[in-house]
Amino acid sequence: MATPTPPANYGFSTSQGDIRTENPLPRAVLRTNNYLLLDGEWNFALDPEDVGLRDYWYLSHSYQRTANWPGSVEEHIAQQQPSGPGWRDKVVVWYEREFALPERGDEGTHSLFQLTFGACGYETRVWLNGFLLSTIEGEEVHYGEYTSFSFELREEHLRPVNRLTVRIVDTMDAETPRGKQESHVYKRGGIWYQTYTGAVRSVWLELVERNRLRSRVGVDSVIEDRMVRFNLTTRVHDPGLYTLRLQVFDRAITTLQPLATADFPLRLEAGQRRQRVVMEVPHAKLWAPGSPNLYRLVAQLLDSEGYVAQIETHFGLRKIESRGTYVYLNNEPTYLDGILYQPGTATYEEMQRHMHAMQALGCNLVRVHIAGVDPRIYNLADELGLLLWVEVPSPHSSTPQSRENHRAELLRMLALIESHPSVVIWSLYNEDWGAQDIATNPETRQYIVDMYHYLHINHPQFLVVDNDGWQHISQEGRLKSDLLTAHVYTPDVNRWAELLDHMVRGDLNNVAVLPLVIGDPFFYGRQKPLIISEWGGFGFADYGGPQSAEERTDRIRQFKQELRKRPLAGDVYTQATNIEEERNGLLDPHTGELSVPAGLLASQNPATPLPDTTLLH
Question: Above 60 in pLDDT, residue 479?
């Protein structure tokens, strides 16, 4: 079968305007340039015997089938083999398409073509006209399926019409970050889901400057002084003197006059470099739920001749702290009314509806459960004023290799998420999945402790949870987690109240499936905020929950009242939507329509008020 004909409108589109407008590319940072979206029909082939590399499919192959990108391998296999069993153990697939090279215009001498995959994996190789490409980081094989990666295209490899070939491999390997996708360790069923891998986000070609800022911005603010630390990454081919220019605008006011501006001279060598700079934004309003004040950052890299490469993003000033019994947001104690969110195979449009619906339920926090999401969802949370608790998709076994894979995934996610004021909490592990030997293996514990300290030093704008749910690590009586979290499921409200009383009194051994703390003795004494980070499950038959929406609503109200009678810092109801065999959702996964009253999860008129903070400022 011939390669699909490129669409007629294969000329460049223009990336420009405010982030608030609909962004067709799955990224959070805008670049004022031209791009060509390569989504659509691609040639597709299964490689069940894994012979494609040996037989040079990247040079020539006769494809008999097509598939739409983006889309999962599982979906594409099902379309080709409707009655087939899907894939087991390992899958190898190939995609290929042609595209005409767009014209560069006047900016050609300063620019080059960059190819970006919004997410693809777990193992991805890419060829252009038969030449194997290397990512900007120098990888001939990219590992990871939750974040974007890019290739700079060399001039000698480009043709008027170009052939792009992609080989994707995934396995049931328990050492790779899988989240709740099934593996050799956890089989599909119950809380474990079908794999969802492959060409899962858009791919696009764009014209970028040879010397530029990458679309990665870190933000850490000191709200007392209205100081903002920006972490930016330069990518330079031509060594020399450059100027990094930052301008901050009030997004609520349409004006050409920036609130603040600053220039930073840099001498840059060829390659990539991360640079921190600090700016004062006087009189800036703080970001928080209910008042999600955002500012626009325009960052420019100017060469010695004055040529400008520019990116744009938004940011907010906010501070998050774990202090005694409560979580403090901008120095104010804030109860976290949370909900567990598992997007599964939801589209970007469905996820948008989910976010609005979860806020309508009364939540100020969404716990995105060990999954990667479209980066535009973080932008939406910034806009709505929704706090986010994000988690590294976990491996399913505890080995030196699984820990290395976990660390690599964490660093990839951090590079692309550290700018969002909505992201306030990170979990390293959940219920010791991928760290099953946490109580007995010093190496496992040390790795988690090391990453906890790494995040504190390099990303102080986040709270960090070592292992959510139970088995938190204590060293010399110091909890290596900013929050003491517990997963507690019971359908009986009296038992629920009893368990909550045990926890607030400091009983850490008889309240969850496993002890809440391991390692050296830890004496609670209300040193850390206590959060019930999973509860409910009402509607999931294995948890004994009520089946009707009315019964579920009443039960949730009763349980929520018991939570607010006690000195807890927050709670996370399980969960937002039904997903596969878990039937405990409160909103429709497609439309976002609520099956319970709006505001049900909000803490209104709490029985135990948060403390007076007039003396804390």
Answer: yes
Which two structure tokens, joined as six digits, stand for 48? 């069940």
CA dist., res. 51 & res. 48, Å (int): 8
Residue 33's pLDDT band (cuts 50, 70, 90): confident
The confidence score (pLDDT) of residue 614 equals 40
Separation CA 29–CA 52 (nearest Å): 36
Mind listing the pLDDT tens digit for each residue in 286-344?
999 999 999 999 999 999 999 999 999 999 999 999 999 999 999 999 999 999 999 99
Q: What is the rounded CA–CA span in Å between residue 386 and residue 358? A: 9
The Cα 571–Cα 518 span in angstroms is 22
Nearest CA-CA partner of 115 in 129, 347, 236? 129
Q: What is the pLDDT of residues 56-81, one digit of tens each?
A: 999 999 999 999 999 999 999 999 88
Task: Enter the tokens of residue 184.
Answer: 């050799």
Nearest alpha-carbon partner for 581 in 344, 362, 309: 344
What's the CA gap between 410 and 402, in Å, rounded? 12
Nearest to 373 by CA among 358, 390, 394, 359: 390
Lowest-confidence pick of 216-225, 250-259, 333-342 = 250-259
- To the nearest 10°, the Cα dihedral for 274, 279, 283, 287? 10
- Fold of the 212-316 domain: Immunoglobulin-like (2.60.40)
CA–CA distance, 148 with 163 (Å, rounded to integer): 21
**CB of 466 within 8 A of CB of 448?**
yes
Residue among 200, 192, 164, 197 at smallest CA distance from 92: 197
Rounded to the nearest 5 degrees, what angle is found at the Cα of 416, between the Cα atoms of 282 and 235? Answer: 85
| Cβ proximity of 213 and 299 under 8 Å | yes
| In the chain, domain spans | 35-209, 212-316, 335-587
Percent of the chain with pLDDT over 70: 92
Confidence label for 350 from pLDDT (cuts 50, 70 and 90): very high
Q: Which residues on adjacent β-strands are paired with residue 328?
A: 321, 333
Residue 291 burial class via C-beta count within 10 angstroms: exposed 0-12, middle 13-18, buried 19 and up? exposed
Query: Contact at 8 Å (CB) between 119 and 148?
Result: yes
Topology annotation, domain 335-587? TIM Barrel (3.20.20)
Q: Quick one: pLDDT at residue 394?
A: 95
Cα–Cα dist 439/429, whole Å: 14
In this structure, the dihedral spanned by the alpha carbons of residues 481, 482, 488 and 493, taken in order and rounded to 10 degrees, is 160
Mean pLDDT to the nearest integer, 11-30: 67
In the block, tokens 């004494």 appear at 525
Contact in structure between 602 and 556 (CB atoms under 8 Å): no
pLDDT tens digits, residue range 497-530? 999 999 999 999 999 999 999 999 999 999 999 9
Tell me which residue has tokens 């630390």: 229
Q: Which fold has domain 35-209?
A: Jelly Rolls (2.60.120)
- State both tokens at 333: 């104690």
Q: Decide: residue 458, CB within 10 A, 0-12 exposed, 13-18 middle, 19+ buried.
A: middle
Distance, in Å, from the CA atom of 87 to the CA atom of 79, rounded to the nearest integer, reads 13
- For residue 147, CA distances in Å to 140, 202, 239, 408 come to 17, 11, 29, 11
Per-residue pLDDT, 613: 43
